[in-house]
Structure formats: C-alpha cells, structure tokens
Structure to design on (589 residues):
C-alpha cells in the first residue's frame, strides 16, 4: 500500500471516531430527557485491497491464503436502544409512561406520529396534548360510556364540564320490627258535616250530583239552625287540600276542580263532575289504601254515606292523619264558602308500625323523597308474622301518592321469609326515565330486617345503602394499565371516558426520528399496528409517571474514552505517514 493510501486510512479513523463521539455526546446531553433512547455507532471496515486472492493446494504447493490490506473504517449504521428507561412517579394525572413495547400515538398538523414521551397536559379545550401541542390519540366512548374501538380520536377529558347522574335501582334496609306489638284495629277517622242538595237540608247528597251544572248546589248545616251554600254548581269550583299531616309529615298540596275540562292543568291535579269523583281524588291525594294483598289490607279510604264524608286513614299508629277544616279551601266560587268541608276527628290510628323516609334519584339526578311504612297485619300460629308495607311520595308526578304496596312474611324465628312485592315505581314527567322503578332489598346478606319481640323500643326500619346519585361534574381521572381513562365525580360515580391507543412496529430501528422525542414510520419499520396496551405485544401504561432516559452514563464515558483513543491513534497514523514521506523526500536530496 502506498504511503498516500495510509493518509486515507488514518482519515477514515478520524472521521468514524469523530462521528461516534458526536453520537456519544448526544446521548450524554440527553441523559435527563424523558423517554430518550440511547444510540450506538456500528463500525465496519471500509474497503479491502486485494494483493492476492490466494491459491489452492497442488502437487507443488500446499496453497496460499489471500493477501489483503484494509483501507480504513466507517460507520455502517446507528442503532437505537429501545429498552425501557426507569419509571419515575410524578403524581400528575396527565403524565403517562409505557413499560414495555409500544408508542403513544399523536397527531401533529394532520400527520400521525409516535412518541414514548408521556409528559402530557390538558389544553384550554381539555384535550390531552404533548409539550409542543400535538394531540394525543385514543378511543372515545359512546353515550353509555362504552369504548368505541377502532376509531382514533383526540383524547378529550372534560374536567369541570362533563356531568352525569345515575338513577337509583336498589335500596337496602335493615331494622327490627316488634313482633310483640299489637295488630291494628283501624286507622284514624275524620268525618265532615253532611252535604245536602237543598238549603232546607232535607235531601242528602248521594255523590252523583253533577256539580258542573248551574243550580246543582250543595249545602251544609251552619250550626245555628240554618244552612251554608257550601259548593255552588256550575262555577268550576277548585278545592285545594293543603297542610294535611300523616304521622307528623306534611303531605303535598293537591287540587281538584269540579269541571268538565281535562283532568290535569298547570294548577289542577285532577277534575271531575261529582262528589264521588272528589272522594276518589282524596284517596289518591291522601295515600289511602284498602287494596287486599293475600287477605291483608291497610283499610284506608274515603267514603260518602248519607251525605257525610268519612275519611279513614291507613292502619298503623305512625299513619295517623291530621285533617282539619282549614286544610280544604274552595276557590273560583261565587257564593260558596271558603272551607266547605267542616271536619271532625272521630278516631285515632293504632297498631304496631315502623316508618322511615329516604331519598332516591331519577336518571337526571333529581332527588325524589319516599316514605316507607311497615304495618303489622297478622300472626300465623307457630309460623311468624305478616306485615304490609306501603311506599308513598310527594314527588310522584302522577296523582296517586301511593307508589307501592306489598306484604312481608317472617318465620317463627323472626327471620325474613319472603315479600309479595319489593319494588315501587314513581312517575317522572321531567324528561327522566319514566317510571323510576326501585327495588327494596329487605334481606341482602349483612343488611336485613327481622321481626322479633323488641319490647318498649318499638319497631325500627331504616335504609342503609343504596345506589344512584345526584348530578356530579367530572373533577378527577386516572389511567389504568390498559390505557383506560376513568373519570371520578364528586357524587361518588366513576365512568370510563376514553382509552389511549398504542402503536407497535415489527422493527423499531426502522423508525425515523423527527425531533422532539417523536418518530414517524420509516421504509424499514413496517406499518404501525394500532391497538390497546397489554395487547398485540404492547406494554402496560403507568399513570402519574414518566419514562426516564435509558442512557447509561458510565458506559457512555467509557465509550467516550475509547473513541477519543481511537481518534488519537488515527491521527498518529497520519503523522507517522507524514514523517515517512518527509524521510523519503530527504533521500532525493
């Protein structure tokens, strides 16, 4: 090899080692860059000069080997180390790290790129973005918070704006009913003054008089030998029931019109033409029930006999009614009196019973109050007790106050046996799911009610657990190992609000780096395989953390020394060759 060729050989060493030092320097400078992947230079010989290709053995010779001299070195390629860097917890919900294979998918100016850098944040539109504003991609959810697979979209986390509610489906109860308590003999009773169809008080009202016709009037005794015009026919008199109490709780105001117009208007709950229609309205408005369930009944109801209205409350001491003359007010009348139903209490409710109130929620998160009463009905010799429950609500959007009835049977040991019905339904006309149906669980493992002889303490029943929730606004979220983003609401609900997508490649070394810790698919990387974490070879996602650089400083410093040594040695080849040329030139002098 000529001396001038030695210059080229030394120069190739300088060039290759200087490139390697540049690679090492880049690694060292990015030692604190999250998710940075270290690179290494792959050296190879540059060219070979063949002085002889050798010869095979023959009768005169044992053969010769090739005679070749190298013409230097070069960088054949740069290999990226895609092994995991350390995982560092940050506690920031938007930060994410991938442990294992795979890349986050991002969109930048309409181009799909890939990154391991999970230093994400939320922008002003609550979209998940990288530090330079690229949009993180994943799978959205439908109206039922179910992941929509296969369709990539911007990850949208609506903190402070996404609101949800959940309808109540189940309520668990526990308590002890006093099996030694008395069986009811009846509910409270109230009677009104007798209604007559004439001012002389000679003909009592039968309940069928059409009070929407002028002249069909009703009268009551004024208590002084004369009469009052109580209800004037043909005037569309409106009766408002207000302030009635049942067991100490005030019932909702209800109105009835003696009119032929539609039953329900903005100010009227029901209408009819006769006193019989009004009595049916009272049964609904006051929550009075005489429905027989397997022979058991609460015995409540309003009736008209010989012109006199008798209101009998439901059985059970806790259902005693407070019903007074002032609770019935007449309006839209010309000559009728303001309080036509002069009422007297003639009996008090008795019998062992328990009562509780609780709140459930419809699908819009609206609170609905429910009153539950359980009344002792009968004793089965050597077989336990039977109780009847009644559920009532002021918030029922339909007229009947009673929203559910059923029997509960206990055995001779006071343990729950069965219930003929354990659900109630409340009408909802506010746009929520209609009706709201709620199951009552009287015996559900730990929570249960029993019927034992409790003594003076009496019966107690109370709701202990229930589902459903009022309206809540998304205020926090977390990311699962499979990339599922779960939102948390202050009302205790959680919902899936999205899922991050992960891309994997057959050959990661074939990816092209485009800066800012981003990659694009290259000619030799293969197409991106897009899916979820923990599938198709993708690793797991760790929320609230970032992946550190995988640069090994100790190794880089050793490589720096060896490359520096190689560079120095290559420079010595050049200086030595120069000295030899100088000596050669001296010979010619």
């Amino acid at each position: 090899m000529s001396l001038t060729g030695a210059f080229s050989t030394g120069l190739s060493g300088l060039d290759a080692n200087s490139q390697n030092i540049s690679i090492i320097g880049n690694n060292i400078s990015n030692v604190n860059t999250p998710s940075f992947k270290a690179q290494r230079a792959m050296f190879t010989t540059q060219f070979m000069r063949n002085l002889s290709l050798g010869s095979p053995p023959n009768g005169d010779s044992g053969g010769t080997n090739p005679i070749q001299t190298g013409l230097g070195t070069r960088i054949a390629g740069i290999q990226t180390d895609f092994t995991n860097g350390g995982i560092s917890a940050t506690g920031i919900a938007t930060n994410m790290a991938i442990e294992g294979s795979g890349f986050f998918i991002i969109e930048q100016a309409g181009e799909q790129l890939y990154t391991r850098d999970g230093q994400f944040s939320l922008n002003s539109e609550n979209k998940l973005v990288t530090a330079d504003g690229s949009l993180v991609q994943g799978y959205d959810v439908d109206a039922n918070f179910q992941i929509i697979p296969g369709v990539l979209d911007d990850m949208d986390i609506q903190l402070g704006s996404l609101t949800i509610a959940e309808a109540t489906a189940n309520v668990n109860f526990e308590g002890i009913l006093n099996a030694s308590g008395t069986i009811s003999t009846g509910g409270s009773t109230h009677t009104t003054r007798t209604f007559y169809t004439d001012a002389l008080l000679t003909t009592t009202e039968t309940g069928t008089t059409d009070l929407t016709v002028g002249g069909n009037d009703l009268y009551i005794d004024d208590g002084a030998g004369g009469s009052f015009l109580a209800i004037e026919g043909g005037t569309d008199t409106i009766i408002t029931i207000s302030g009635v109490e049942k067991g100490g709780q005030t019932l909702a105001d209800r109105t009835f019109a003696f009119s032929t117009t539609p039953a329900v208007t903005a100010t009227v709950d029901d209408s009819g033409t006769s006193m019989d229609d009004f009595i049916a309205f009272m049964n609904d408005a006051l929550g009075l029930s005489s429905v027989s369930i397997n022979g058991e009944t609460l015995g409540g109801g309003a009736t008209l006999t010989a012109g006199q209205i008798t209101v009998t409350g439901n059985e059970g001491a806790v259902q005693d009614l407070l019903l007074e003359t002032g609770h019935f007010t007449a309006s839209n009348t010309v000559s009728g009196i303001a309080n036509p139903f002069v009422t007297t209490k003639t009996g008090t409710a008795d019998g062992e019973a328990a009562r509780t109130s609780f709140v459930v929620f419809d699908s819009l998160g609206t609170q609905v109050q429910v009153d539950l009463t359980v009344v002792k009905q009968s004793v089965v010799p050597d077989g336990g007790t039977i109780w009847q429950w009644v559920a009532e609500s002021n918030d029922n959007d339909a007229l009947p106050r009673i929203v559910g009835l059923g029997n509960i049977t206990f055995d001779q040991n006071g343990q729950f046996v069965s219930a003929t019905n354990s659900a109630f339904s409340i009408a909802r006309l506010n746009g929520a799911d209609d009706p709201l149906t709620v199951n009552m669980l009287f015996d559900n493992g730990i929570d249960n009610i029993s019927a034992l002889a409790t003594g003076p303490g009496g019966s107690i029943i109370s709701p202990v657990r229930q589902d459903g929730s009022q309206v809540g606004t998304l205020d926090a979220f977390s990311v699962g190992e499979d990339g599922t983003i779960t939102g948390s609401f202050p009302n205790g609900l959680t919902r899936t609000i999205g899922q991050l997508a992960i891309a994997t490649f057959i050959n990661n070394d074939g990816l092209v780096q485009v800066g800012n810790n981003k990659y694009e698919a290259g000619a030799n990387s293969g197409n991106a395989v897009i899916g979820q974490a923990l599938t198709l070879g993708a690793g797991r996602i760790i929320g609230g953390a970032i992946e550190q650089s995988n640069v090994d400083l100790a190794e880089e410093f050793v490589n720096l020394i060896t490359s520096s040594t190689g560079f120095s040695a290559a420079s010595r080849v050049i200086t030595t060759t120069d000295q030899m040329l100088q000596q050669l030139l001296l010979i010619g002098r």
About this structure: Residues 553-587 form the longest helix (35 residues).
